[in-house]
Amino acid sequence: MTLNRRQFLMLLGAATGAASLGLAESAESLELPFRSAQTPSEVFKLPPLPYAYDALEPFIDAETMQFHHDKHHAAYVKNLNAAVNKYPELKVMTAEGLLRQIQTLPADVRTAVTNNGGGHVNHSMFWEIMSPTGGGRPTDSLAAAIRQSFGSFEAFQTAFNEAGTQRFGSGWAWLVMQPNGDLQVTSTGNQDSPLMSGLFPIMGNDVWEHAYYLKYRNKRDEYLNNWWNVVNWPEVERRYQQAMTEP
Ligand code: MN3
Predict the structure, then answer these.
(1) Fewest beta carbons within 10 Å, which of 3, 83, 171, 221?
(2) 123 assigned to a ligand binding site
(3) 22 C-alpha vs ligand 1 centroid, how far in Å?
(4) Assembly state and interactors (predicted)?
(5) Residue 120 annotated as binding?
(6) Tens digit of pLDDT for each residue in 186-234?
């Protein structure tokens, strides 16, 4: 069984004494770091979309959301399961753990884990950092960190949008935390995860055409501008706090 962090913490709250076992410290954003053996094809699961397909209208259309989640993300999960089924020792690792240790994985599954593990982790984050009640600005410590790193929220938005428009072909625009704690705007190609470079992905926007083409056609810049209306800042803040506490 795979739990997101919120579900896991709820369970922890219900299980007296669980924190004393050290479980709280080892919880990751998507899955427990270790899990019991399961049937081979079901180690990684497609997380449910946390809102209706049309919930992000008019900024992201329902058809895009349905295909993006039910077809594209589902395919990454299926292919990631197929890749790790060759190596039982990989099936006890989280998808995030696989990406962080990508260079140590067996060479014949490294590309499949990069593409499909990255696709799974990136999209699992993506659904959660958007919300029908999103938009506005970050608050709390993240707002201060953004001001300190980029000068202003507007300057950060400009840098993030530029990272998205300048990514040639398919990929992601990111706000990441470097190992020294500094924030950085960057982009990656394909489904490459910042985790593979030792960077923590605080937030990212999917600039593959499958994320916007039905509604925006070739206007990626318009999609990037409108996307800010659905950003779930409380979840992004939570990820920022997680970035500062994870090793
Ligand atoms: Mn996508």
Answers:
(1) 221
(2) yes
(3) 35
(4) Homodimer.
(5) no
(6) 999 999 999 999 999 999 999 999 999 999 999 999 999 999 999 999 9
